[in-house]
Amino acid sequence: MNSKDLPISSHLASGREIISVEFSPPRSDDAGRQLLETAKILKERIVPDFVSITYGAGGSTRARTEEYARILRRDYEFDVVAHLTCVGSTREELRTILREYRQAGLRNIMALRGDPPKGEANFRAVEGGCAHASELVELIRESEPEFCIGVAGYPEKHPQAPDMASDIAFLKKKVDAGAAFVTTQLFYDNRFHFDFVKNCRAAGITVPILPGLMPPLGLEQVLRFGKMNGSSVPAELEKRLAAAAGDAALERKAGIDWTVDQARDLLKNGVRHLHLYVMNKSESALALVDRLEEEGILATRRR
Ligand SMILES: Cc1cc2nc3c(=O)[nH]c(=O)nc-3n(C[C@H](O)[C@H](O)[C@H](O)COP(=O)(O)OP(=O)(O)OC[C@H]3O[C@@H](n4cnc5c(N)ncnc54)[C@H](O)[C@@H]3O)c2cc1C
User: Fold this and answer.
1) Per-residue pLDDT for 201 more than 70?
2) Considering only CA atoms, which residue is closest to atom 49 of ligand 1?
3) In the CATH scheme, what architecture does the domain 8-294 have?
């Protein structure tokens, strides 16, 4: 057992301000060293309440997701959320992965459907697999009921959903199947988040909803991500990033300024959780937390 080993639901029920950080499994040993260096820096400075580690498209990083989830838990003493998708795995294979996660001492899972393979518009479950994240939540509940489960939510609706109402109805299905919290897709305009939370509550979704923030690194990046995940880019952000284009430091500063404004507004309006997509790097997250602490918006987090 590490020092905490708590289900995420306990963190979220504490009433404290919660900051969580999302990592992606590295593709090389060098990238792995960078991830762990980032983890060390963030652990000392930001003291994340928990971290999550994604699961690669098509299950391509399965072994690395598990390996780094183990390391982050055992050596860095983080409470870890290991992601898992339905892509390419039968239910039997998913049960095996869940068993391995449990044997590694993990107790939190992000249950996702995953994206269709590149070039394909629609997701198709493998024979004997799960077609929707709600089915994966059910499978986890049946086979490893002690896991605390998170699921994905989309403040601008999932790109394949015909409308927000049906997307939220399917989100409710995931929560009713046993999810304890929702983490959102990144967004750059808080109005989407506030409306999303209001609509979720009206639909009877009562679990915590953690807003996903990603400090933009440049215009090209936000436009590319927007195409991939449906996060729209406000005209003002586009203008500021375009004005900084070509100077990486200025672009990063414009991005951090934007995320500081978002985080300040969220926290001032009663939001208690921030989930940071850090791209395995520490600089933007450190700058964000420094600024929020300086302004007195966030209580000091340093140990
Ligand atoms: C916080 C977060 C973390 C993520 N982490 C990863 C990761 O680690 N690895 C990865 O590959 N991807 C990840 N993704 C991306 C995610 O896999 C994609 O967005 C994927 O396209 C949908 O996954 P989902 O779990 O939301 O699917 P679902 O909840 O199954 O929803 C997918 C679509 O199907 C619809 N739908 C849901 N249930 C039904 C139903 N019963 N009948 C008909 N339609 C239905 C929904 O409205 C939606 O349009 C993440 C996304 C987020 C927001």
Assistant:
1) yes
2) 161
3) Alpha-Beta Barrel (3.20)
Helices (H), ranges, the chain? 8-13, 29-45, 62-74, 91-103, 133-143, 164-176, 190-202, 219-229, 235-244, 248-268, 283-294
pLDDT tens, 28-64? 999 999 999 999 999 999 999 999 999 987 666 789 9
Question: Ligand 1 pocket, 78 CB below 6 A?
Answer: no
Domain boundaries, the chain: 8-294
Task: Report the catalytic residues.
Answer: 22
Calculate mean pLDDT across residues 223-231.
93
- Token readout for 178 is 């046993």
21 phi and psi angles, rounded to 5 deg: -130, 140
- The pLDDT-based confidence of 119 (bands split at 50, 70, 90) is confident
Q: Which residues contact 226 (CB under 8 A, 6 or more apart)?
A: 232, 233
**Nearest Cα residue to atom 8 of ligand 1:** 54
- Substitution candidate for ligand 1 out of 55, 87, 158 with most atoms within 8 A of CB: 158
Residue whose Cα lies nearest atom 10 of ligand 1: it is 114
The per-residue pLDDT for range 164-196, each reduced to its tens digit, is 999 999 999 999 999 999 999 999 999 999 999
Q: Is the CB of 155 under 6 A from ligand 1?
A: no
3-class SS at 149?
strand
